[in-house]
Amino acid sequence: MQNLLLPNAAAAPCCAQPRRRPSRPSVRASAVSSSAPRRETDPRKRVVITGMGLVSVFGNDVDVYYERLLAGESGVGAIDRFDASGFPTRFAAQIRGFSSEGYVDGKLDRRLDDIHRYALVATKKALECASLAPGTSAMRKVDKERAGVVVGSGMGGITALSDGIASLVTKGCGKISPLCIPHAITNISSALVTMGAADGFRGPNYSISTACATSNHCFNSAADQIRLGRADVMIAGGTEAGIIPIALGAFFACRALSQRNVDPGTASRPWDKDRDGFVLGEGAGVLVMESLEHAMRRGAPILAEYLGGAVNSDAHHMTDPRPDGLGVSSCIRRSLENAGVALEEVNYINAHATSTLAGDLAEVKALKQVFKDPSQIKLNATKSMIGHSLGAAGALEAIATIKAITTGWLHPTINQFNPEPAVDQFDTVPNVKQQHEVNVGISNSFGFGGQNSVVVFAPFKP
Questions:
Q1: Against a cut of 0.90, is the pTM above it?
Q2: Hey, which residues does 310 pair with through a beta bridge?
């Protein structure tokens, strides 16, 4: 299993480095600095982002992914992976033309569920971005006992499980693949990453599964491993590959999916009065998170800083959010407290905003409970273009948040035709990108079961 990744694969272009910022703090930052809670100053406990990698409906390159988001493209279209003609919803943000060639051994690649293939490629690209490509001198210098992985998913290898059930029904138990269970359980993506993409990381290794809040839970947990002194570097993120018949049918049964089959490109409409449900997506996103001390010791590229985060529960309903938004507002407040950030410092939010009737309004209500002057905050919805990739959603949105920090540009929220009055106080970056210097950005993710998770990022300042 040690040859999961081909050691001589050509290196992909690294994600672009942050643009140079003036050293003088902005007037806004200076005005609020005195009221900010104390941030972490110990370089052993400060957590920085040194690499990003992904697999998405817009391809496997972080910069191309963000360029297409900035352009306001929709990645949603008709499903052609299977015959969806008998389903009420016949479209999704489906990945097409994916190849792991040069990243995953060919024999293994043919056996893996897509969820694991996505995770391996995203991880390898994140490590390349962090100047930690497998086999390099920089990677050999990493203490593998203090390097770990936390990659989760909402559903695990659901294709492997579905195939196993089909074999049982049509051929009997003797024809079920011996890899059915290993490929179906949620922790195997993390396990496969350690064996190949991460060049043998032997530190903390586990998976978290909290539905659509998964990725942010993984980021928070990975940061805790660093801050508690258990690890120097962590690979963290989420992966999902659920565009298959059983998932499409089951989400329709939950009355969660849009049915805008005539015009799928406009189906994902966060905060629009005519929204009718979310669009199923897929992919993977991975961050390389390091202690500042470790990153500086090896001269790593630093893209942004993870300031903190929080997780909690609505304790309300299996699928519906609390209509009063109290669980979410509490989670946001706790995340800012953990990050050492004052309310006035936050000027960008990447919203969960799935395009569901109840969820969109509950999140906005929660934001208004926390931020008394929303007019100062830019709010956008990545899912308007790439759909909802469930356990991977938070990771793909964290990458969009970090790219907003490093580029100074916010991607639009597309399909804003008839916005809800409830969101009027926010600038939702409707339909066209905006230039904006992010002071502190937060990214929200919420999942079935009342799972809430929030992460806080900012430009890195030595």
A1: yes
A2: 454
pLDDT given for residue 318 in this prediction: 86
Task: Please say if 212 is a catalytic residue.
Answer: yes
Cα–Cα distance, 191 to 200 (Å, whole number) = 10
Would you list the DSSP string of 400-418?
HHHHHHHHSEEPPB---SS
Name the E strands within 226-294: 233-240, 283-291
Residue 313 forms part of a structural domain: yes
Would you say residue 30 lies in a domain? no
User: Judging by beta carbons within 10 Å of its beta carbon (0-12, 13-18, 19+), is residue 9 exposed, middle or buried?
Assistant: middle
Contacts of 22 (CB under 8 A, 6+ apart): none
Question: 48 forms bridges with which residues in the sheet?
Answer: 290, 305
| DSSP strand pairing (440-447 vs 346-350) | parallel
Query: Does residue 27 sit within a domain?
Result: no
Cβ–Cβ under 8 Å, residues 95 and 121: no
Query: Is residue 427 situated within a structural domain?
Result: yes
For residue 49, which of 153, 129, 112 has the smallest C-alpha distance? 129
Please tell me the distance from the alpha carbon of residue 227 to that of residue 251, in angstroms, as a whole number.
Answer: 38
Task: Report which DSSP code applies to 285.
Answer: E
CA 458 to chain centre: 16
Range of the domain at 180: 50-459
b/e for 103-138, b at 16 or more Cβ within 10 A?
A: bbbeebbeebbbbbbbbbbbbbbbbbbbbbbbebee
The region of weakest confidence among 96-110, 125-139, 303-317 is 96-110
Please report the DSSP string for 66-117 in residue order. HHHHHTT----EE--SS--TTSS--EEB---S---TTTS-HHHHHHS-HHHH
Q: What's the rounded Cα separation, in Å, for the pair 53 and 128?
A: 8
| Number of structural domains found in the chain | 1
Contact 115, 241 (CB under 8 A): yes
Catalytic residue among 212, 218, 254, 331: 212
Distance, CA of 163 to CA of 183 (rounded, Å): 11
Name the strand (E) or helix (H) holding 33.
helix 27-33
* 181 burial via Cβ count (<10 Å: 0-12, 13-18, 19+): middle
Neighbouring CB atoms inside 10 A of 265's CB total 16
CATH code, domain carrying 160: 3.40.47.10
3-state DSSP assignment of residue 382 = coil
- Whether 459 and 306 have beta carbons less than 8 Å apart is answered as no
266-297 burial string, b = 16+ CB within 10 Å, else e? bbbbbbbeebebbbbbbbbbbbbbbbbebbee
In tens, the pLDDT along 384-440 reads 999 999 999 999 999 999 999 999 999 999 999 999 999 999 999 999 999 999 999
Task: Indicate if the alpha-carbon torsion angle 181, 183, 189, 193 is positive or negative.
Answer: positive
